[in-house]
Design a protein that fits this description.
Layout (H helix, E strand, L loop, with lengths): L1 H23 L29 H10 L9 H15 L15 H8 L6 H8 L3 H11 L14 H22 L13 H19 L7 H29 L7 H21 L4 H8 L6 H23 L14
C-alpha cells in the first residue's frame, strides 16, 4: 500500500509541478551561438523548446533570465575556449573525473536482477563514506519516506526496497564526483546536482515504457549530470582566466545542453562499465526510446526543481519516490 501511495504521489506531484512551471516560463531568447559537438548543432531556423531545455532552466535559476544582453567579446572567447577544452576530453581521458572505487562491484549488483537489497547494502557497507552519504540522502527532505530517521543500511533496505536502493546507491556513489566549486557561476553546480536528483525521481514514472532499461536510463541521467559538471568547470575556468563575471547567455545554455550528454558518454567509455550496461548506453543514441525517456525525465526534473525553488521551500519537499516497490 505504501508503494502505491508513494508512486501515485510521485506522478501527481510531478504533473502538478510541470503544469505550474509551464505557466510561468519565459520564452527562450536567442543569442550568440555556442560551439556544440558535430552533429548536435541546432538548426539556425529552430530554437529548442524551453520545456525540454533543462540547461536553460538551470542557468536561469542560477544567474537570472537568459539573455544576450551585456555580453562582451571576451564572453564569446571564454565560451569558445571552453568548447575547445571539452573537445579534448575524448583524447585526454586523464582529465576526466576519477571512477569511484566501488563502481564495478556496485554496478554489477545494481544491474543484476538476482541481487537482493541486502546484498547491495553489504557492498555499500565496505565504504563507510559511501554508506554515510547514502544514509544522508535517505534522510533528506527529497527522499525521506517516513518521519522516523533512517539510521542504518538495514533500515534503508526495509523502507525503500531494491528499486529504491538502486536509486539511492547510484546517487550516493556519484555525488562526491559531482561536487565542485562554481566560481563565477555561483550555485550552478549545486543546481546541476539537484536537477539530477529530480530527474532520477521522474524516471520512476517515465522509464516504465516497454523495452526501456530503467537502470540504464538512471545511469544516463547520472552520467549526463556528471557531464554537466565538467562543462561548468570548463566554463568557470575560462571565465576566471579572463577575470569575467558569468552572464546567463544563451550560448552558455546551448553549450551545457549539447556537451553534457557527450561528456557523460566519454566518461562511460573510460570507466569500464559492465558489458550489459555499456550495451544499453550504446543503444541510447538520439531518437531511441531510451534517449526520449531520459530527455523527458530531465525536462520534468527541471520543471520540478524550478517550482520548488520558486516556492523557496526546499525543506517542505514531499518524499516523492522511494517507498518500497
Amino acid at each position: 500500500m505504501d508503494a502505491i501511495v508513494a508512486t501515485g504521489l510521485t506522478g501527481a506531484a510531478l504533473a502538478a509541478l510541470a503544469w505550474w512551471w509551464s505557466r510561468r516560463r519565459r520564452p527562450l531568447r536567442t543569442g550568440a551561438d555556442a560551439r556544440v559537438p558535430e552533429g548536435d548543432a541546432p538548426s539556425p531556423t529552430k530554437v529548442a523548446q524551453p520545456a525540454a531545455d533543462w540547461a536553460h532552466a538551470l542557468l536561469e535559476l542560477s544567474l537570472g533570465a537568459v539573455t544576450a544582453e551585456g555580453a562582451a567579446p571576451a564572453h564569446d572567447d571564454a565560451i569558445a575556449a571552453a568548447a575547445r577544452s571539452l573537445e579534448r576530453f575524448a583524447s585526454e581521458p586523464g582529465r576526466l573525473p576519477r571512477r569511484p572505487q566501488l563502481l564495478p562491484q556496485l554496478l554489477g549488483a545494481l544491474n543484476d536482477d538476482a541481487s537482493s537489497a541486502a546484498q547491495l547494502a553489504a557492498v555499500v557497507s565496505r565504504d563507510p563514506a559511501l554508506a554515510a552519504n547514502l544514509l544522508k540522502l535517505a534522510n533528506s527532505a527529497l527522499y525521506r519516506v517516513y518521519p522516523a530517521p533512517v539510521g542504518s543500511l538495514e533500515r534503508a533496505v526495509t523502507l525503500v526496497g531494491m528499486q529504491g536502493m538502486r536509486q539511492l546507491v547510484a546517487l550516493a556513489l556519484m555525488q562526491p564526483v559531482m561536487h565542485t566549486e562554481g566560481g563565477a557561476f555561483g550555485r550552478l553546480p549545486d543546481l546541476v546536482w539537484e536537477h539530477t536528483q529530480y530527474a532520477t525521481l521522474a524516471l520512476r514514472e517515465h522509464a516504465r515504457r516497454p523495452g526501456v532499461d530503467a537502470f540504464a536510463a538512471q545511469l544516463l541521467v547520472l552520467l549526463q549530470g556528471l557531464g554537466a559538471i565538467v562543462v561548468v568547470q570548463a566554463l568557470r575556468d575560462e571565465h576566471a582566466r579572463r577575470g569575467l563575471a558569468a552572464l546567463p547567455l544563451p550560448a552558455v545554455a546551448q553549450l551545457l545542453q549539447a556537451w553534457a550528454p557527450r561528456i557523460g558518454r566519454v566518461v562511460a567509455r573510460n570507466w569500464d562499465l559492465p558489458a550489459r550496461t555499456w550495451q544499453s548506453l550504446e543503444d541510447s543514441g538520439a531518437g531511441s526510446e531510451l534517449a526520449r525517456v531520459v530527455d523527458t525525465a530531465c525536462a520534468a526534473g527541471a520543471r520540478a526543481l524550478g517550482a520548488m525553488r520558486e516556492a523557496d521551500a526546499p525543506g517542505n519537499v514531499a518524499p516523492l519516490a522511494l517507498a518500497a516497490s
